[in-house]
């Protein structure tokens, strides 16, 4: 199974999904660059999330906050004080590890044992994960800011702005997708744990009572699981796991994870957290601004509680890739949901050296690319048709469309389905609808 991760890493590099960050300079640990196909996949994933979580709900509003935030935000949110991991250092080779990751510690000790070396560790100390940056143009007067450690705070500091501009009635939510940065002690497992990554989050504000909060928590927990399943993630590969009280982040009163059955074990894909009034109360206190909510119906003023759903875009991308990866006799196929697939279809002229076929194929290609709602369409005229099929299978293209001599006679094409490999004859006029159906 471990091998499957290596296969995905290699496929991602070879076919233009994901590359190591700053590679020509020897790489920068914990960073990854998305290539042409990876960018499409990630874009599709974020778009599916935004449609499902924001655009199809009347009481959810989107924001897009700055990455650079006032340093007081992080004091208010508790991150400068409590956003830490326990760090230990190997006294032999000085490599640093997280003290709460026994598997990695054992691996490290085993590597030294092979060389007949015994490992001694330093005492654990708390290491803050916030990434610092310096802002300003005058040397000596630059201020220290933090690249946001979670996108969450960009939402809470805009709570009042959204209230004043949109006048939402409680319960309502504010959603955001964007980059977050963490000085992870041991970035590893490809894009699973990196130092720069993207999150997709909902902060859902509810009345401060246990029953309301618990109902909302259950509702969003299930909605989030449904989202993964609706995009084709296999049911047997996802599960819920409740956090023990000593595992929870400093802001959480309750926390559940959606976990994925990865080649490196069941791992967190997304967290659902009951944050209580932690964020709004703390930001009220630290900013001196009143962030309470006035309920026009009950004439009550209160500090709302927050139910949060927080998923990683890069983790979801990796887990969808792992879930979709299949080896079938002589082909490798990514059975990605068509909504996620980088290309929605590929168009081939049967023969590259027959101008009338190429011209007809070009006209079909232009026709389909004109329909923006379909998404990108690939063009391929290299090698024989079998090779082109396998090349598209490996990147998850749901349909391959071949223009042959019959097309010139009757305006029909051969459409080959990625998963069943079945071929059928479809009229050019019906192609758009044929592809569209898979995207609904
Ligand atoms: N606002 C709550 C929050 O940030 P979290 O559990 O620390 O909670 C939420 O992070 C999600 O962000 C995780 O479930 C994971 O998908 C993603 N994530 C966190 N750290 C990450 C990292 N170093 N690399 C990639 N994704 C990460």
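-> sequence recovered:
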């Amino acid at each position: 199974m471990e091998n499957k991760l290596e296969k995905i890493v290699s496929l991602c590099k070879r076919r233009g999904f994901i590359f190591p960050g700053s590679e020509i300079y020897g790489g920068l640990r914990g960073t990854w660059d998305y290539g042409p196909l990876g960018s499409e996949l990630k874009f599709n994933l974020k778009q599916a999330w935004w449609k499902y979580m924001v655009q199809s709900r009347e009481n959810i509003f989107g924001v897009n906050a700055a990455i650079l935030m006032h340093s007081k935000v992080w004091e208010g949110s508790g991150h400068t004080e409590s956003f830490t991991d326990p760090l230990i250092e190997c006294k032999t080779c000085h490599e640093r590890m997280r003290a709460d990751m026994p598997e990695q510690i054992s691996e490290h000790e085993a590597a030294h044992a092979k060389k007949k070396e015994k490992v001694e560790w330093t005492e654990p100390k708390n290491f803050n994960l916030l990434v610092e940056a310096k802002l300003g143009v005058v040397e000596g007067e630059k201020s220290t800011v933090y690249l946001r450690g979670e996108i969450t705070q960009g939402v809470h500091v805009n709570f009042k702005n959204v209230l004043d501009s949109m006048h939402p009635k409680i319960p309502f939510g504010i959603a955001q997708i964007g980059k977050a940065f963490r000085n992870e002690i041991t970035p590893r497992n490809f894009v699973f744990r990196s130092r720069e990554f993207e999150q997709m989050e909902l902060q859902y504000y509810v009345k401060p009572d246990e029953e309301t909060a618990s109902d909302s928590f259950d509702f969003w927990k299930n909605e989030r699981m449904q989202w993964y399943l609706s995009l084709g993630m296999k049911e047997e590969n996802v599960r819920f796991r409740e956090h023990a009280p000593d595992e929870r982040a400093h802001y959480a009163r309750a926390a559940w994870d959606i976990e994925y059955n990865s080649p490196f074990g069941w791992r967190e894909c997304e967290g659902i957290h009951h944050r209580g009034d932690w964020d709004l109360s703390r930001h009220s206190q630290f900013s001196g601004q009143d962030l309470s909510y006035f309920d026009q119906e009950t004439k009550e003023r209160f500090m709302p509680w927050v139910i949060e759903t927080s998923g990683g875009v890069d983790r979801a991308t990796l887990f969808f890739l792992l879930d979709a990866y299949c080896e079938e006799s002589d082909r490798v196929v990514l059975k990605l949901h068509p909504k996620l697939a980088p290309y929605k279809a590929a168009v081939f002229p049967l023969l590259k050296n027959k101008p009338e076929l190429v011209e007809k194929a070009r006209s079909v290609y232009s026709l389909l690319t004109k329909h923006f709602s379909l998404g990108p369409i690939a063009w391929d005229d290299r090698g024989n048709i079998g090779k082109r099929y396998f090349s598209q299978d490996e990147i998850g293209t749901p349909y391959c469309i071949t223009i042959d001599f019959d097309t010139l006679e009757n305006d029909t094409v051969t459409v080959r389905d990625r998963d069943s490999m079945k071929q059928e004859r479809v009229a050019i006029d019906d192609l758009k609808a044929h592809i569209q159906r898979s995207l609904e």
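Residues 150, 152, 182, 184, 193-194, 197, 199, 201, 268-271, 308, 310-312, 314-315 surround glycyl-adenosine-5'-phosphate (CB under 6 Å).
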